[in-house]
């Protein structure tokens, strides 16, 4: 099949609907920013809310738990409705949640608002890729999906560190206020540029249970869970860990990590089609080595920043590699359902990882966080090494 769509009856390429795709990409950016921003603001939010930094970290946990719990039931409940009103409703939910967080002085109210945001995030992630695929001809779906998911990279590489820098300049509440305003603007953008699609017909729905037991799929989902557990246990609490290491510029640490994820995604794009297994093994081994280095030598600023950069390179490419392995294991016909399962597992890993990191931080201190992450990342690496038949087969030429 040609990689370039042609306008009907002509030789002219059909242009991508850039305004609509960029609106969806901005929605992805907003969701990631809303989910992870507290991780960069722990020292600033904790005094205002009257709680410990670990409990502020649980605001990330609460979001992820809600996203995990709500993604499948909310999607099932609303999948028959027209798509654009559901998308707009999710964005308005982000507006309300971030506005409450920006104004609240109550930890309980703030936590409740984060649960609402998590539910909206779970619903949003279940929609974005499928929405992008429906906006373009079949032969251009990959590029459309890549554009939408670029919002994740932009949030990690620039958004979270910029949010931390904004909070340092004008206060953490302003950072959440900006997110609320962005969601409002995005509603108008979506209504103007994103086409409306009907809901899914009941006869087209594939049961989740039939997909979950396909050969290789449990191993791919296990790798997703182990990696997110280990990553999030440290990433959520990178601010107290950096302070413990004697480096107080959390915004710099987050910027180094974020920029490095872009490098990791680029490297992955070059290697994934031919060397998926080897590249994923390398990325996970690098993650494990980074945790070891941070556990032993983080008090040296050069080691800290260099390790964080390598961490970003490794983690930046890993989700793409795992997602590709997921589609290989499930087959194209079941890819959407398999992705919904992975989204749930992904958020479970974020929730459990940030919860585990918070418990370790409160009881053992920030120096124990890399040692908590190391065995979890090693478990992901071991799973890939062993699952060489269906989930992560030996490298082969791939179309």
Count of DSSP helices? 15
Name the CATH class of the largest domain. Answer: Mainly Alpha
CATH superfamily of the largest domain: MFS general substrate transporter like domains
**Span from first to last CA?**
11 Å
Question: In a few lines, what is going on in this structure?
Answer:
With 399 residues, the chain is mostly helical. It has 15 helices and no strands.
Structural descriptors:
399 residues; mainly alpha; Growth Hormone, Chain: A; 2 domains; 15 helices; globular; disordered N terminus
Topology:
Blueprint: H1 18-36, H2 42-49, H3 53-78, H4 83-103, H5 107-134, H6 141-170, H7 172-193, H8 208-212, H9 217-235, H10 238-244, H11 250-271, H12 276-297, H13 301-330, H14 335-364, H15 369-386
Description:
Helix content is 77%, strand content 0%. With 399 residues, it is an all-alpha fold. It folds into two domains: 16-204, Growth Hormone, Chain: A; 206-399, MFS general substrate transporter like domains (Growth Hormone, Chain: A), CATH 1.20.1250. The termini are close together. Mean pLDDT is 85; it is low at 1-6.
